[in-house]
Amino acid sequence: MSAPVWSGKSATLDTNRLALVIGNSSYPDAGSPLPQMTRDAEGLTNALRKDGFLVDAVDNATRLDMTRAIDHLRARVHLNSLVLVYFGGYGVQSDGQNYLIPVDAKIWNEVDVRRQGVSIDRLLSQLKTSRARIRLVVIEASRRNPYERRFRTYSHGLAPIQTSDGALILSSASPDQVVEESSGLHSQLMTALLTQLESSKGIKEVFNSAQNAVVAATHGQQIPAVSSTLAGSVNLLPARSGAPVASVGSAASGRHE
After folding, report:
1. How far apart are CA 106 and CA 126, in angstroms?
2. Distance between CA 76 and CA 99 in Å, rounded?
3. At how many degrees (to 10) do helices 35-50 and 188-197 cross?
4. pLDDT by residue (tens digit) across 112-146?
5. What predicted TM-score, i.e. pTM, was given to this entire model?
6. Are 191 and 210 in contact (CB under 8 A)?
7. Dihedral (C-alpha) 177, 42, 205, 199: value to the nearest 10 degrees?
8. Domains and CATH numbers, the chain
C-alpha cells in the first residue's frame, strides 16, 4: 500500500480523530490522469495533520490497498472516535448502489463494477459497526468515467447515498449529476472545503458552506450533496479552536452514542 508522507507541519496527534484519505489519479483505462485528485488528497491530508488528525494517506490505491486501508482504520476506531474518510477518483453507480473504483479495476460490464469496486454502502456500514461516534465522508467521484462507454449510453454520476445515525456525507455533486473536469490546482469541491476548514465553524456548517461556495463558483452548474444525521455541534478541528471534539448524538433520539 502506498502511503505518501506529504509535507506540512503536524500538531500533537489526537487518536480520537482518525482519517483515511485516498487519492486515485492514475487509471490505466482512462485517457488521461486526474492530477487534481492527488493534489486534493495532499491538501486535505496536510490540513488534517496540521490539526492533529492521525491520517492514513493512500495514493493510487488498488482494491487490495483500499480494503487493507479500511480494515486498518477500523482497527484503530474506538467509542470516542471521530472518523473522516475521503475518496477522490472514479465512482460508478450500479443497481442503485455506489462503488469507488480502484486503479487496478478492469471494468467491462455491470457485474465488474460490483465485483471490483468498493461499495460505499458497505464502507458506511463498516464504519457504523466499528462504533465510531462520528463518521464523516467526503466523496469526489461524480465524474464522467472511462468505463461507462463500454456498457452504457451515458454517465450516471452517483446514486443517493444513504446516511446512518451519526454520519455526515459530502459528495461533489447531486445524485445522477456528472461533474465536468475543471482547471486549477484543486477541484471546485476541495478548493471550497480547504477554505472552510480554515474557519472555526462546526463541521455541518463547513460542509454546507463548501456546498454553497461550489454552487456560486460554478453558477449553479455543480451542486454538491450534503446528507447529515448529526445532532448537536461537532467541531472538526478542536486542536485549533480549543473546543471539545463534539457534543453529538443520534439525530433521531438526540442521545449520545
Report:
1. 25
2. 24
3. 10
4. 999 999 999 999 999 888 888 899 999 999 998 88
5. 0.87
6. no
7. -150
8. 17-250 (3.40.50.1460)
